[in-house]
Amino acid sequence: MKTYLKRSILTSLAIMSVLNFTSCSEFLEEEVYTQYDPDSFLQDQEGVDALLTGVYASTEISGGDARNIYYALSEFPTDVSFETDGGFASQVKPIQEFNLNPSIPFISGAYSKFYAAIARANNVLLVTSGLQGIDADVVEKINAEARFLRAYSYYILHNFFGTTPIIEIPAGATIDEIETIGKETPRPTEADYRAYVEADLIFAATTLDPGTLSSRANKGSAYALLTKFYLSNREWQKAADAAAEVLKLDYELYNDYTTLFSIQGENNKEYIFRTECKVGSNQVNQYMPHAFPPRFRVQPNWVNFAAQFRTYTAFYETFEEQDERRKLFLTEYIPDNRTEPVQLVRDNNGNPLNNARSFKYTPDPDAQGVNHGNDIPVIRLADIILARAEALNEVNNGPTQEAIDLINRVRNRAKASPVTLNQFATMDALNDFILAERARELYTEGILRREDLIRHDKYISRAVERGFPAQPFHVLYPIPQDQLDSNPNLAQNPGY
Fold first, then answer.
1. What compartments host this protein (predicted)?
2. Within this chain, do residues 315 and 433 fall inside the same structural domain, yes or no?
3. How far does the chain reach from its first CA to its final CA, in angstroms?
4. How far is CA 485 from each of CA 22, 27, 154, 488, rounded to the nearest angstrom?
5. CA 342 to CA 309: how far, in whole Å?
6. Quick check: pTM over 0.85?
């Protein structure tokens, strides 16, 4: 059994090396030192956690990864926010201005990150397939978590690149065989890709318990991701049904939107899946140092970066004045070298400044420099409520009272004016409202706005309206050049 574990660890390293497409052609055989017998190691929760830690670590998006993936690749090319100034500006400029090429580091970094996570998830499945004398239910739940995280990784890859190679390593594969798989696997069809990810998520949803820890995969997070997966694929009835499964579980909207994303709001029952951040750990929230405007009066333990994360005035003004979500924007401030406030929304002549700042992640009083401890939601209940409303609108080919009631659950919490069925004469009218409502509810959160605009066929047109040379093929990022160089069967996305 120890020999099997050694082979699995070496296999995992080989897979990650191949999927990161390094130039190495040989692998060093290293001695594996361990005091654990895998037969007993996985019989308690500590063992399960240890086995899965690497997968969770690979999939979590925080710190610099969040800056690159959630903002540079996901929100800055949209109509919600953008970035200027600092050294970061030159790196993000070609992305938010749609001057894309296959050698942009953020694009390559995202691709490699999630294939490393897939490699680790596959290794968990390889290890568990060789375990003996372990309770079958325990093994099934380990496999379900690993498959959820693998599906989550493929989901994000698909969001950015379309279909990408499905890498599966057969039991007992040699290092040479693993290397061949990584260097020769072509892109699958859209149908095969969807079937593969769907199978992982259905297995996770039907195997895992509901759970109460939103930083770990459970039934609720599996059905929630399944909802988003179906929604992104425009499988409306399946999306509505998966969302209904989430709504049956013990989640609830947090009563105060203005503190939901603060340290005070942590451990709420709205977060379905989250990255748990803690100052002093490897998982931290580094959003706020980019959002503080110049010479903002920060605490001594905070940092204010030169990079500026700014919000479009047109988006800010979509909020009603009484909307609680509007309160999480900084619209004016007094710099530490002035006594008069600086306006961030419009100048004295009424011209838009496009400079309001999202303070959604209320600064952590105990931050250490750039690192704040605010948890980062990956999926939360409001997202799924609005997803079901959208899916029902499509299924019924027009507005229904149930869809309106779902939207009002979200708007009522924000103290925004409730909407009525007679306000929307057509399916398109309600879809446009839902798209705008999702932006108001979910700004500054993850990959959401970009995928929403793409699903509603407005990503390119909105970019063109902002003056950028966006083309229809820009709904996908280019496959990174280093991946193409390593795998001759990996076709580039059209247009690049």
1. Cell outer membrane
2. no
3. 48
4. 11, 20, 21, 7
5. 16
6. yes
